[in-house]
Specification:
rod-shaped; 2 helices
Length: 97
């Protein structure tokens, strides 16, 4: 008889506790799911921003743009090849240097 009462009280206390834990776990899952969605959106925004920045770097470092700046803003001119002088440095130990 006492075992029945103990079992009854055990079930009376554990079933609501179990249901409360299920609700808590479900709420926690919902919060984590929302946080994950927010983080994925933030990551997608960062990726798009990086793509735009990389494209901008490519645009600003293009040889044509650099040449235009050199000619138009800095008034630089290409020198003809006949005015170039090349200096070659040979290995130091072979010549006693």
């Amino acid at each position: 008889m006492i075992k029945r009462f103990l079992l009854f009280y055990f079930l009376v206390f554990t079933i609501p506790l179990f249901l409360g834990l299920l609700v808590w776990q479900s709420n926690r899952y919902q919060n984590l799911s929302r946080e994950l969605t927010r983080l994925e959106q933030t990551q997608a925004e960062w990726i798009e921003s990086n793509k735009r920045l990389i494209a901008g770097i490519g645009e600003y470092s293009s040889p044509q743009r650099i040449e235009d700046i050199a000619r138009n803003q800095l008034n630089l001119q290409k020198i003809p090849p006949e005015y170039l002088l090349q200096v070659k440095i040979m290995g130091g130990t072979e010549h006693g240097y």
